[in-house]
Amino acid sequence: MFRRFLFFSVLSAVLLQACSSIEYSPNQSSDSKSPRDINKKSLARLAETPGDDTIRFVLTGDSQREYKYSEKLVDVVNKIPGVDFVFLAGDISDFGLLQEMEWVHSIFSKLKMPYIGVIGNHDLVANGEEAFVKMFGELNFSFVYQGVKFICHNTNSREDKFSGNVPDLPWLARQLKPQEGVDAYIPVGHVPPDGMDFDPRLVDEYTRMVNRSPNTLAALYAHTHSHDVYYFYGDPIPYLITNAIEHRQFLLIEIVNGKLNYKNIEY
What we know:
Elements (H helix, E strand, L loop, with lengths): L1 H19 L17 H10 L6 E7 L6 H12 L6 E5 L8 H11 L6 E4 L9 H8 L5 E5 L2 E5 L16 H7 L8 E5 L14 H10 L6 E3 L6 E3 L8 E3 L7 E8 L2 E8 L1
Parallel strand pairs: 1-2, 2-3, 5-6, 7-9
Antiparallel strand pairs: 1-10, 4-5, 8-9, 10-11
């Protein structure tokens, strides 16, 4: 009887030790400690921010494995007065892994202001889409802040095999319609419409839709790992691209009296 008791005691101890050392699959999309609904919580914080005559925000992107420089970016942004929020415009991860997104969040959660994640092409590989949705929220969403509607959307056409469904133009058209309480519009994506990863069949309709909407101030992107600005059809609406975090640059954007200005910040 004692031997049987001793055997089961030892077996239980071994099993408990084994369970404590189990590592979850790198392709899992969440665990019990994973943050949830980051964008929803950030927008709730932003809604409580006292407004003034200036909207000031940061556009950055491509944090993929650049943890050291991400920490530096957070330090720099925290010292800029009056920043309302930060856009992390895609490629939060490199391999679409939950752990990567969690590491980046642990850094960006140290910002004094809320940050908002936008889906990138690298975030869609493996189980990245499921992980992103659980951690950050929907791939296409919008919000209004001080009269400006920011339209965050999936522009990663290649990962959808250029199906004609990404970006979702019918959804975008609805978001760009005149809306009470909205004075201006700013689409925000990851892949810009002039890139090889954007569905070439949709470029013309997409850009004309953005340019012809009532009072579009600009369209914002990342992805190319370089800072750039360009225009379509001679229209004055700038398509702004922020540099990658690995190159230690971001865009500081201000909207004052309905006019948008931006500055490329090196750190």
